[in-house]
Structure formats: structure tokens, C-alpha cells
Amino acid sequence: MDVIWPALPAFLIGARNTIIYCIVAFPLALLLGLVLALMSGSSLIWLRGPARIFIEVVRGTPIVAQIFIIYYGLGSLLALTHNDFLVGLINSWSSGIGTLALNYAAYEAEVYRAGFLSVDVGQAEAALSLGLSPGQSFSRIILPQAVPLMIPPFVNDFIYMLKDSAIISVIAGSELTSVLNFWVNRNGSNPLPFYLVAIVLYLLMSLPVSYVARYFERRVRAAL
Amino acid sequence: MAFSTDRRTFLKRTGEFGGLIAAGGVLETILAACGGNIPTSAPAATPGAVKVGNKGLKLPGFFQWGATSDNGAPYVYKDPKSGELIGFELEIATAIAGLMSVTQKQIETDYAQLNQALQANNFDAIMNGWEITPDRQKTEVFSQPYYRNGQQIVVRANDARFAQKTTNDTFSLQDLEGLTVGTGAGFKAEDLLASDKKIKLKSYDPDLPFNDLALGRIDAVLIDFSTVTYYVLGDGPGGAANKSLKLIGKLFEFSDYVVAFSKKNSNATTLQKEIDQALTVLKEDGTLQKIYKKWGLWNDVQAQIGIK
Description:
The complex is a heterodimer.
Chain A: H1 8-40, H2 45-60, H3 63-79, H4 84-89, H5 92-118, H6 121-129, H7 134-164, H8 176-186, H9 192-223
Helix pairs in contact in A: 1-2, 1-5, 1-7, 1-8, 1-9, 2-5, 3-5, 5-7, 6-7, 7-9, 8-9
Chain B: H1 7-34, E1 62-67, E2 77-78, E3 85-86, H2 88-99, E4 103-108, H3 114-119, E5 125-126, H4 134-137, E6 140-142, E7 147-156, E8 180-184, H5 188-195, E9 200-204, H6 210-215, E10 220-224, H7 225-231, E11 245-257, E12 260-262, H8 268-284, H9 287-294
Parallel strand pairs in B: 1-4, 1-5, 8-9, 8-10
Antiparallel strand pairs in B: 2-3, 6-12, 7-10, 7-11
């Protein structure tokens, strides 16, 4: 077990990077997902069409392909401008966070839609009959009632994103899984301790999220 | 919906269903076993050629060697045009198998799992740009070296910092300090770069960093010479010369490629002797030199390990 001591600092930095990727990308994904959900529920075809196309394409293609397209495809396009600042914009951090946010936004949009569908249609009718505008009825009546139902899927997706951030290694980013691969390559004769360290770190990252989420769920339900 | 059935019918239907599943499973196993790897190239033992023993092999008639063909250029990889496996290590394995009067068979294994697979006795030996390291010495024994590899620095051809440098200059790790250097994950260069804290290392997996070097995201690439010949110089089928990159500095940090055998394998010493014999023959009769020249891998340092 003493083979892991020299590796621990690297593993902790990798875990820190993974957390940074997810903590920045997930709120972006939630925000974009809400926008997409509203667009896809709109009665205007020029809002609904693009949103649905985006959701279906992003959900139906592998995230590896998406990160390649953003990092190398978009990167080559920007390289044509020969502008150092623009080329520097697409690095492993920005592409990683951007891809994760866009990819998960498509999934969150569907979670939002499920949440809105779950609110009894009588609520919307009552809101309108009381003279609330559609905007008010959405933000004050429907959204708050949908939130308790959406928290478990969101927590699910965040914990999933903790592991999905491993995709960053294909664009030379550094996070927990790439650090794990580095050390396993060097200790082919005895890789098990490193796998155990990685598992423990992933658990340490995801368990607090579940507990905090359950606490919030109770509070939100009580408030209704 | 009421689903009423008596015990006898239920048991009969369960038995039929279970029988179907069992039949399907057995059929699939038979098909999978039949349609396994078709070994390539019949043994071409020329009359009067030196014969080497083959007692140490796991499966008589086959020299099974573990390697990664995924992103494996130019060691062993799928020819982009024909889909056949090609590569300089495939040719070496074919030559060794020919001397042993057996057929070579590459067992596809993920690079990071090669050691574990060797310990699990999935194949006879590892041959995939494998170098001797203290960690590997714990569980493996090695043949004599068959290729002396060195690390090569690659930079952009239009980079002003290296405009005056050529392949005749001497570079070392210290010259890369302060730069962002890329390499492949699991390569020896990764170890070298990680040991120097002043170098910013970027590890690429599974693709290689030449793309990013051309785009300007990293300053240099330090990687095995064999990889450079394929991706930058364009030697070998499917390789494309990359004009926007140039090599600088002589090769440094030499290390040898060897064939590795598992210590746990009772036939290890026999097989090691036989492979060593085969490699000596190939070094003396010029086969290895021919293969390396074909793939652009030949250079003067190969004479140091006895390749004529």
C-alpha cells in the first residue's frame, strides 16, 4: 500500500480538477437546459424546431465525438484567423467545460420537461383565471411545484458528470481518471491500490452531493 | 388482467423458454469459437534456413504476442486502405515465427493491460515497443533488445525560436524547460517530462499531440523516434509527411525495445532462449535492417545492439 503515497498529491489535484470541471459545467447545463426546455415547449416553430434538433442530436451522439468537434474542429477554424487570443480560447479547460455543459443541457432539458408535465394542469388554469400573466404563472406557480420532482434526476446527472469528466483526457486535460491511467501505466505489476484510491476519491466526491440534495428536497417539499 | 395457468403448463413453458436460452447461448459460443482470429501468413521457412526451437510456446503452432493495434502505428496497426494488419513489429513477429516454423498471431490487448494479460497467460509474450523498467522487472523476464529507440523533439517548422536548429544539434531535457511539451500517455517521454517540474506536460490519450503542435497549442512534442517517423516523416503505409513540423536535435535518452515473458510462466526460460536465438539470426542476416529501412526506422545506433 505504500506505493500510493508518492501518487497521492497527483490524485488529489486530479480530484480537484474533476470537481472544478463539474461545478462550473453543471450550473451552465442547468441554465441552458431550462432555456432549451422553454424553447422546445414554445408554440413558435422557429424556437421549438432548433431546440428539439439540438436536444436530439446532442443526446444521440457520443460525447467523445462532441469534444473532438469542439476542440479540434472549432480549434482548426479559429486557427485560420491566426489570432493568438482566439486560438487560446479553445483550450482543454474551456472545451471540456463547454462540451460537458452543452451535452448535459440536452439531458436536463428533458428533465425539466418531465417536471413541468408533472404539475397538475389545473394549477396553470387556476393561475390564468386569477389573472396572473403566463410569465408569472410559470415562475411562481408551476416552476416551484416542479422543482421537488426534478432534484433527484439532477443529482443523478451531476454524479454522472463526475465520472463523465474523464472525457477530458482525450484532449489532454488532467483530471482524476487521467491521473489514474498515468499511475496504472507505470505500475502494471500492481495497479490495484491505485484503482482503490480512485474509487474512494470518486465516492468522497459524490456522497456529499446526494446528502445535500436530499436535505434540499425535504426543505423544498416542506415549503410547499 | 388475470393470468391463470396451472402448474403443469407453467413448468412446461418455463422449461421451453429456458431451453431456448440455453440453445441460443451454446450456439453463440460455438459460432464465436469458430469465427475467432484467423492467423495471417503461412510459415515461410526457406529450405536450408536456420531452425529455432518452438517448445516454449503456449499453443503449439502459434507464436502469440500481445500488442495494441488501436492507434498503434507504426508498431502494429490496421492499414487504412486494406484494413489488414501491418506494422514493423508484425513483420518482426512474422520473421521470428518463420524461423520457429509456426504462425504468428497478434492478440489484441489494451496497452495499459498488457502486463496483467501476460500474467494471466493470455499470450506467450509482449512485443509492443516494450522497454525494461524497474516495475516490469518485478514480474517479467526479457529477451535481448531488437531495436534501440530514442526520444525525438518535434517543433513547428515556422517557430522562430527554433529557426536555426536542426537535427544535428544536441538537445536534452533541460532545453525544454519553460515550454509546454506534449506526448502520448504511457510513453517513456511522459515519465521523462513529468520528472522535470519546469516543463509543462500535456499527455494525449489516445490520439497523439502532433495535431495540437501544428495548431499552436503546445510548443513541442517529445516522443519515440518510431512514432515520429510515421506521423511526421510519413514513412510506412498510411503515414503522411507533416510539412508544418520539423525535427530538431539528435536522439537522446536511448532505451531498447525487448520482448517480455512472464516470470510465472514455466516455459519462460525456454521461450526466452528460443526468441533470443531467433533475434540473433535476424540481426546477423540483415532481416531486421531491411525491415527498419523499409519503415524509416534505421539509424546508426542500431549497430550498438548488434544489428548488422
